[in-house]
Amino acid sequence: MNLLVVGASYRTTPVATLERLAVAPADLAEILSRLMAQPYVGAAVVLSTCNRVEVYAAVTGFHGGLADICGVLAERAGRAPNDLAEHLYVHHGQAAVEHAFRVAAGLDSMVVGEAQILGQLRDAYHAANEADTTGRLLHELMQQALRVGKRAHAETGIDRAGQSVVSAALRVGADLLPGGLAGRPVLVLGAGAMGALAVATLARLGVGPIMVANRRDDRAVRLAGTYGADAVPYAELKRTLAGVDLVISATASAEPVLTRAAVADVLRRRPADRTGPLVLLDLAVPRDVEPAAGELPGVAVIDIDALAGALTDEPAAVDTAAVNQIVAAEVDAFCTWMRGTEVAPTVAALRGRADDVVGAELRRLAQRNPDLTDAQRAEVAHTVHRVVRRLLHSPTVRVRQLAAEPGGDQYTELLRRLFDLDVPNSADVASVPDLDGDR
Predict the structure, then answer these.
(1) How far apart are CA 26 and CA 53, in angstroms?
(2) Each residue of 39-61: pLDDT tens digit?
(3) Is there a contact between 210 and 227 (Cβ–Cβ < 8 Å)?
(4) Which CATH number fits domain 2-161: 3.40.50.2000, 3.30.460.30, 3.10.20.740, 2.120.10.30?
């Protein structure tokens, strides 16, 4: 199996396209099923966050697997594959492993070092497990990626600054309000993982008063109670919006929650003594705030696209050199393991071929010498098998060693050609020892 990553992120894709690719948790099983139905895809994991959608796959052929995955993504986005291709990035083999580990460590995040990606990656892995789409190769990749992410945070403190997409968005929002966020009423719209992070961040920063609204009022009550915020009924959303200065919206809605018309109505209700614009921080993908709402006077909309642009010129908050070293070492170790698993089916096929040859010769011997006793036949069989095992021992041990080195796949291929071995592409299901992971 070949390891392949095909994805789109805030770096390569406008939010309008990214939100069409986004996969809600409830839709993960369906998209995984679509991927697994493709002829070249043997295993798949889908990671969908507010700023990336990625497919991690084990495929039987690079070009065929790439076409299969791009076709599924293009259909989801309602785009022709060639049109979507310009927004996608592709990583194969070792580069795919490196990308997975960088993502888990927070090196590829919009806010470098943010820890939320670990939980998101774990959720993606668990969803694929429940759908039975991981396979051996992706199981090990995800386990190791989670371990690498934990190691990076534990050994380097890359997340020590407590940075997240929420904290970065709040910095941008504070610059738009005279006097910053102090004493400004804030509404968090949505009580999922991102909404909970928003409330926790606001509480930690001492911003408030904080209000929470959610389509399911009971979830808003629970979240608000955890952090001493106030839950407001979703039915009273417009009245609540009229009294706040900043909104953090992070729902899982497939359609905009705040349309241009709804925001215009809120502005009419807004007290005249409110200073500064109504700041809408839209951290949802698909977007919660209709883009046209940003055209209204007195409204500032910051979505993922705008946030990415605002953060481009910010200095790095953490030193990533130590994390890069960890990732590089872990990539080497994992690729060594992958190369080892790739040679295993070839070695097994070679031993199987030898057993077949020995078996055929022993049967011929028995036919030509029917007077041999059972004991004599057993002794001859034992001797021949022992000779073959000794002859194969050194080359099979050596080819395993060579296969673990960079470029080692050429030795495996050479062995297959020399002995004309028909080896199934089974690296994904090879029986190999478990690696230390997040079990």
Answers:
(1) 15
(2) 999 999 999 998 899 999 999 99
(3) yes
(4) 3.30.460.30
| Centroid of chain to Cα 128 | 11
Residue 438 has pLDDT above 70, yes or no: no
pTM of the predicted protein model = 0.75
Helix (H, G, I), strand (E, B) or coil at 211: strand
Report how far apart the first and last C-alpha atoms of the chain are (Å, whole number).
Answer: 23
Burial of 114 (0-12, 13-18, 19+ CB in 10 A): buried
Catalytic residue list: 50
Amino acid (one-letter) located at 245: D
429, two tokens: 């299901």
Residue 435, token pair as written in the block: 């690696």
Of 138, 100, 148, residue with least CA distance to 427: 138
Looking at residue 395, what is its pLDDT? 82
> pLDDT digits over 375-422, tens only?
998 999 999 988 988 888 888 778 777 776 666 667 777 878 888 887
Candidate CATH numbers 3.20.20.480, 3.30.499.10, 3.40.50.720, 3.30.420.10; the one for domain 165-311: 3.40.50.720
